[in-house]
Amino acid sequence: MRRGPEKRALLVVTVLLLAGVLTGCWSYGEPDEIAWVQAIGLDKGEQNRITVTFVVAVPKAIAGGGGGQPAQGGEGGAGTFQPISFEAETLLGARELLNSVMDRRVNLSHTRWIVFGRELAEEGISRYLAPLIRFREFRHSTTVIVAQGRAAELLEKGQPVLEDSASKYYDLMARGWRYTEFIPFTPFHLFYSKAKSPGYGGGIAALAALEKKEPVFPNASAKPKGVYYAGHLPRKGGGKIELIGAAVFKKGRMVGVLNGSEVGAMKMLSGTFRQTVVDVADPRSPQDFVIVEIHPRQPPQIDVSLRDDGTAEISAGVSLEGDVISIQSGVEYDNPENIHLAESLIERDLKRKMEKTVTKSQEMEVDIFGFGDHVKKKFATWPAWMEYNWPERFPDAVIRVRVDFKIRRIGLVHESFPVRG
Amino acid sequence: MFWWQSLADFLLFKEPQEPPTEFVAGAEDRQQQRQERTEKQDQKAGRDEVQPDEVRPAAQKAARDAETRETVFEMEASLSNDLDQNKKVLENVFRTDINDDPIIRVFTIGTDNPVRAMLVFYDGLSNKTIQNFAILQPLMLLSGLREDDPKRKNQTDQKTNKKQAEKSPKGNSEYFDRVKDALLPGNQVQTVTTYKEVAAAVLSGDSVLLVDGSDRALSIETKAWPNRGVQRPEVESVVRGPQEAFTEQIRINIALVRKIIRKASLITEFIKVGDMTETQCAIMYLDDVVNPAIVSEVKRRLKSIKADYVQESGLLENFIEDKHYGMAPQVLATERPDRVAANIMEGQVAIFVNGNPYVMIVPMTFFGLIQSSEDAYVRWPFGSLLRLVRWFGLGLALFLPALYIAVTTYHQEFIPTDLLLAMTGAREKVPFPTIIEVLLMEVSFELIREAGIRMPGVVGTTLGIIGALILGQAAVAANIVSPILIVIVAVTAIGGFTVPAYGLGLSVRMQRFIYILLAAVMGLFGIVVGIFLHVAFLVNLRSFGVPYMAPVAPTTGSSPDYFLRGPVWRQERRPDYLDPLRGRRQPRISRGWWRMRRKGGGGS
Amino acid sequence: MTGAPKVGVREAVAVTIIFIIAKLFLSYQVHLFHFAANAAWMVPLIQTVLTIGAFLVLAWLLERHPGKTIVEIGEELVGPVINTFFGIILAVIFVGLVGLILRQFAERALTGFIPDTPISAVVLLFMTGVVPVAYLGFEVIARTARVFIVFLVLSGLTVVVLSSPLWEGHALYPLWGNGPVGLIKGSLVASGVFMEIFLLAVIAPFLPRGSLRRVGFWSIGLSGLFLFLGVISVLLVFSFPASAELAVPFFEVTRTISIGRFGQRLETLFLPMWVLISLIKMSVGLYLVSALMARTLRLPYYRPLILPMAVLVIAVAFIPANVSEAINWDLNVLRRYGYVIVGAIVVTLAGLTWWRERKGDEAHAPRT
Fold it and tell me: Fewer CB within 10 Å, N or C, chain A?
């Protein structure tokens, strides 16, 4: 009988596949035989170089075959996750140690947060970032966070309130950058590429902290809401973790902190701003506030010119628009003739905030806005740009900020009348 | 061996050396012979032990009978002039001694010069009314009525003289012609000349009239097989479109197609297939459209088949398909006349098999198997949507369980964390690995499905309840499988039911298990390597010389009707890969009114 | 399988494109970032133009000798001895190429998707797919490529589109990268990326008459476009210095894509694209070396050579001690010098043809 080519091909396939089947299944791993790490914390070590904290999910509590237990406060008790800390030399070394504690095989591919303790951050974190880019299990969207205080404590006590799953809690917390100005957008891949880019010369990480027990401010004077940063929010109740403000890195070392409004200004200037609410004291009635919700109208317009001595002159134009959501004073800003008054009020306020932030960044000598990415357009080749050495020149750059704000909507009230009687 | 030589001599009208007594089988020893026959069969079974010498004379006789019959067919022996001789041979052929179905009715044709004749038919296969009133009555009673013409009468007197007939080599052929031309009012009458033809005609329900003195016989159409009427299609049902399906009767089936395509160029060719019993097959095509090479290839394959028994279109499919190891069906079996008509119009060939409500269409491509006639009957965006749904269903049926295994056990990073944790939590109490879980559920589902087809309809609801309970609740409650897997298996099953061609559905069911194994061994990698090989084998496949994956690979011109369904006014060309004689189906502007309206009513 | 395979224009274009751009899913871009910094996206465009020039020479040569492959042309022009030498050199180069590609793909599969699997098993699995398909012949390979290219292009474009929210336009500046000199140098040194266009020299007899140029231009043009997209999307997502660090940049792009909370770590979604393109590439490569060897050794069939060649390819795949060495050999040795050798052979043959035509027919006549 003539054997056709297909038949022979099939024979080869069958033999090889059998070989595969008989010996295969190397990477096979049941999901219920794997310990899913949801967050990693890195601190300066107490008994070794670093302390590594892993938050391991407890799936049976989350899926809740018989009604999952809600997360409980306290020392990482019988909740939906299990924090474990190790003293180790390296992060991945600690992962090996974790395997000797967990019955399930440890897997880092679902890590949502990587948290650095402030002390370690100030010492420098670049050597701990290396495994994140090289090791296959890490995901690039992991949020980079700096904890005021120790990361281990933050992760142990940071129990979710609304969620069963810690990873959802972490995820949604970090997603706040989409609708508030106080949280920066710091996924790992961005942090990494900015840390490497000479257009920035530094990176930004979100700042997190546990709730502060003692009063933060001694008196009850009026303070804008953006002056706070994590760990200094005067509040009672809610989850333990606060996420507001940002840690500024230069050459892998944390050099400073931005508060809430500075993060907002930074986001407006660098183009990651999405939405926020601004309250400005009404000059005609200083006790009252005009409150608007603002959105970006178009990406920031950044024009650069170089002086003869190489100093960069940067003019940053930020275009915003928004809706009036409250006018406490009753001044008729909703009248078309007066709208421009409200607009200029907001413009002045935002401009002041941005200028303050720019000054602060120049003092810290870190270009957190990515102005360098626009300056480099003035150069023809990469070597010339490297020679210019932007991180060194940034503090001397002349930066002007222009804000253009337009009110588009005035909410559900067409015109307001003063309160009488 | 001299006895069969003498038989041959006899059948070839040589002078017989001795009377062929072997033919006569006495009715009195019918019972005895039957016994001997069974004994003979027993002996045949144990042939090794039994010596030929021990065979008893009666058994020898039966064996000789059998060989005689074979010889009659092998030599295609012609009929004899002698009615008695014919009767003897036919009685032997039809085993009238033991078989009660064949009827041999001897009578006399009532012409002035009475001639003996014989009507042979099978009881039950033929129509009694036609026989009584259209054959026997005219011949026996009315045949004299037209003999007024003296001239003719004289002629007849002369020719029907039996002795004269024996002298002339032609026999009384003119009398035979007169019976055929003038006396028999049957609508289809054919002349047959050999025993083999007589037997074939009788077996298909016709009545054969033999006239003494003639070596020809008349096969009169009296078929009255029991058959189903035209009913609704049960497998390929559509919402919009004709609601009639083929039946078991080939003539009805052909008529159903011919009813749709009313063209003189629609050719039906009958081809008999099979050795032991000849199955009547027919091929149907449009003479002025189809590529002649395809027709001759189909005919070549059908005619070359030497098989015992090809009674079903599925069996015939096995005989004519190109590759037997390929899992994909290479012909389309359909029960819808409209679908056959549409494919014939495209330039394909339909193969009808008698006794079978499925008609095969060749050559068939992969894309043809995914289509349903309804795609064309609804408006084209919805036709495309239906087809997309079906592609999706095919994908699910083939890959979903394998993908589930691959993703949950190899590529967990891909699963959204919340879902992963929910799945993990649901699996906590399940003791089996995922692969066992999947196999368990898939096998149970296959069992239920098979049982659902085979079991008596009366207990159908029981199975539904048991199946739903076992597969659904109880398995989960007993922690044998995780609930999410039930969803996977159910969706897979539903996906499988969207595949319109039953043959393709079967192949999908089987290949699903291959992919499951591949996924268990190497994750998505294994699956993709499997897909690669799968597609390569499909591409390598040909159906009657037409590449199976046409018009995609190789890329040939085609109307927009393979992956999705284009608007009907854009179906301008017949598929290139069939290389039809007429490539164009309709002119570029098929909607004449459109241009007219734009010209005429442009102002409005 | 009677008669020579027949391959339509689209199938040929599909298979050639896949043969050329498969390296996009390996470490191809790394190379470019080193030469041209953030102007690496220009390199594929320049290379496309250069390659079209080189292809014109090849096409001219093949069109002068219709119905013949490069091996038979060589035999006619330089005689069997030198031609056998040529053929073996070509086969060696392509065996090396295919072997190194196999190694890199297997290593990437290992690091990326199935980390606990021994590399021999991955290579075996790859060859399970590749050997039967190469065995079935070029017609089947080309048609398989034609079926899959729709899926591959759609997947690839999906990656590019999904990564677009992560793009940073200023990654393109400073516009000229390392300057025009670096750009040209990089383009020339790395021109080996289009070396696979040589495939056409072996499959030319299977193509429809007179369609060689059409196939060549379309393949080179589209390959150039896809390479360009592959480079620029990486550059826009990771910006320059970070993009040069990545070993498998396109893979990292798929890892980085994030569509909300549920669409993350999409590399698994694009794994089929990845594996299919490498399987097709390997099948073509295996067929190419087998056919080259068969024709060089004047054997009537290539099929008996498939298995030995597969063994050879696997052996080559395991020569480099580690993945860095494999990348280095592929990019810095084989492609850099290989395309010079291949080019030299083609130019020699083209030169001889030209010379012979100038000499006129009377000198040519006695030979045949």
Answer: C
Q: Which two tokens stand for residue A69?
A: 């237990």
Residue boundaries of the structural domains of chain A: 29-258, 268-421
Residue with tokens 């496949």: B541
Report the Cα–Cα distance between both ends of chain C, in Å, rounded. Answer: 31
- For residue C264, give how far its alpha carbon lies from the nearest alpha carbon of chain B (Å): 7
What secondary structure, in 3-state letters, does C147-165 show?
Answer: HHHHHHHHHHHHHHHHHHH
Residue C25 has pLDDT above 70, yes or no: yes
Q: What per-residue confidence (pLDDT) applies to A86? A: 92
**Is the pLDDT confidence value at A200 over 80?**
no
- Residue B414 with chain C: CB contacts under 8 Å: 265-269
Nearest-angstrom CA–CA distance, A308 and A158: 53
Asked, for residue C46, whether it belongs to a domain, the answer is: yes
Whether residue C165 is contained in a domain is answered as: yes
Report chain C residues whose CB lies below 8 A from the CB of B535: 144, 147-148
Q: Decide: A378 and A294 in contact? Cβ < 8 Å.
A: no
The CATH number of the domain where C247 resides is what?
1.20.1740.10
Is residue C89, in this structure, part of any structural domain at all? yes
Contact status, residue B232 vs residue B242, Cβ threshold 8 Å: no
All partners of chain C with 3 or more CB pairs under 8 angstroms: A, B
Sheet with A285-306, edge to edge strand ranges: A276-282, A285-306, A312-327, A398-409
pLDDT digits (tens, 9 = 90+) for C207-222: 888 889 999 999 999 9
**B319 burial level (CB within 10 Å; 0-12, 13-18, 19+):** middle
Residue A75 burial (10 A CB sphere; 0-12, 13-18, 19+): exposed
Number of domains in chain C: 1
Q: Is the pLDDT of residue C141 over 90?
A: yes
Task: Fill in the DSSP letter of residue C68.
Answer: -
Q: Where are the domains of chain B?
A: 1-75, 78-226, 250-364, 392-547
Type of residue at C121: A
Selecting from 3.90.1150.150, 3.40.1080.10, 3.30.300.210, 3.30.70.270, what CATH number does the domain A268-421 have? 3.30.300.210
Segment B397-400 long-range contacts (CB within 8 Å, at least 24 positions apart): B397/B492, B397/B493, B397/B495, B397/B496, B397/B498, B397/B499, B397/B505, B397/B508, B397/B509, B397/B512, B398/B508, B398/B511, B398/B512, B398/B515, B399/B512, B399/B515, B399/B527, B400/B488, B400/B491, B400/B492, B400/B495
Give the pLDDT confidence score for residue C182 in this predicted structure. 81
**Helices and strands counted in chain A (H then E):** 13, 13
CA dist., res. B362 & res. B360, Å (int)? 7
Quote the CA–CA distance of C238 and A79 in Å, as a whole number.
38
CB A30 to CB B427 under 8 A? yes
Q: What angle is formed at CA B13 by the lines to CA B12 and CA B18, rounded to 5 degrees? A: 105
Q: How many Å apart are CA A235 and CA C43, to the nearest integer? A: 57
Q: How far is Cα B208 from Cα B190, in angstroms, rounded to an integer?
A: 9
Q: What is the ipTM of this complex?
A: 0.93
Structure tokens at B566: 């284009």
User: Which of A61, A139, A168 is nearest residue B413 as measured by Cβ atoms?
Assistant: A139
The answer on pLDDT for A74 being more than 50 is no
Q: Look at A9 and A190; give whichever has higher pLDDT.
A: A190
Average confidence score pLDDT of chain C = 87
Task: Please give the average pLDDT of every successive group of 10 residues along chain B, which has 604 residues.
Answer: 50 47 44 53 48 61 73 74 86 85 87 84 87 86 61 50 45 76 82 86 88 86 83 86 89 92 91 80 92 92 83 84 79 91 92 90 89 87 92 94 92 88 87 90 87 79 74 81 88 90 89 90 89 91 87 79 82 84 82 67 44
Nearest CB to B418; choose among A6, A30, A168? A168
Joined together, the tokens standing for residue C152 give 């591959």
Strand A241-250 with A202-210, pairing? antiparallel
